[in-house]
Amino acid sequence: MPRIANLYFRTAIIFLIVGIGMGLKMAITEDHSVIGAHAHANLLGWVTMAIFGGYHALNPRKAERRLAMIQYYIYTAGVAVMVPSLYFMLLGNMALEPVVAAAAIVTFVGVLLFAFIIFSGDEIATTVLPAPSH
Ligand code: HEM
Fold first, then answer.
1. Which of 15, 115, 5 is nearest to 63 (CA)?
2. Which terminal residue of the chain has fewer beta carbons within 10 Å of its beta carbon, N or C?
3. Are residues 106 and 78 in contact, defined by beta-carbon separation less than 8 angstroms?
4. Structural domain spans, the chain
5. What is the pLDDT along the chain (134 residues), one digit of tens a residue?
6. Ligand 1 site: residues with CB under 6 angstroms?
7. What does DSSP assign to residue 53?
């Protein structure tokens, strides 16, 4: 598996652990105010990062590009700042609102870069499956 794919899966599983932690906290305390942070940790973190990692695993030549690593750092920084700042904002710390907004924009830039990766270059999957044996 390309390094970037492995990195994305490792980062994704951390967000799933954090996201489920928030879900369990909501369930146990019966206070669902952090629902937005929970949903975004799981969906922008676990789900989207796993899809990004899967895409790179299927496209090893694109995964080798420097842009792939730049996109990883920008997207991950955005989500890593957005999730905790959203969590504390939802708990009442409204001063964090501009931080959430800035992190959301950084996350979106990461998504746009991923769109560029998908649409640029003509590399297709280089994973060759063995022919079925009869
Ligand atoms: C053990 C794991 C999990 C627990 C204990 C948990 C718990 C919760 C709780 C208590 C809520 C609030 C429900 C409400 O107030 O209506 C919630 C909402 C939500 N969760 Fe989870 N969750 C878990 C895993 C996940 C995962 C893996 C995802 C996504 C991949 C996810 C996505 C969401 C979303 C999108 C909402 C908002 C739903 C809505 O507003 O209708 N959760 N979760």
1. 5
2. C
3. yes
4. 3-119
5. 999 999 999 999 999 999 999 999 999 999 999 999 999 999 999 999 999 999 999 999 999 999 999 999 999 999 999 999 999 999 999 999 999 999 999 999 999 999 999 999 865 555 556 777 76
6. 20, 23-24, 26-27, 32, 35, 38-39, 42-43, 46-47
7. H
Q: Which residue's CA is minimally distant from atom 2 of ligand 1?
A: 20
Nearest in space to 56 (alpha carbons), one of 7, 2, 108: 2
Residue position matching structure tokens 């950084």: 106
One-letter amino acid for residue 9 of the chain: F
User: Measuring from atom 35 of ligand 1, which residue has the nearest CA?
Assistant: 39
Q: What is the Cα–Cα distance from 79 to 84, expressed in whole angstroms?
A: 9
Token couple for 127: 């994973």
Q: Evaluate if pTM is beyond 0.70.
A: yes
* Ligand 1 centroid distance, CA of 23 (Å): 6
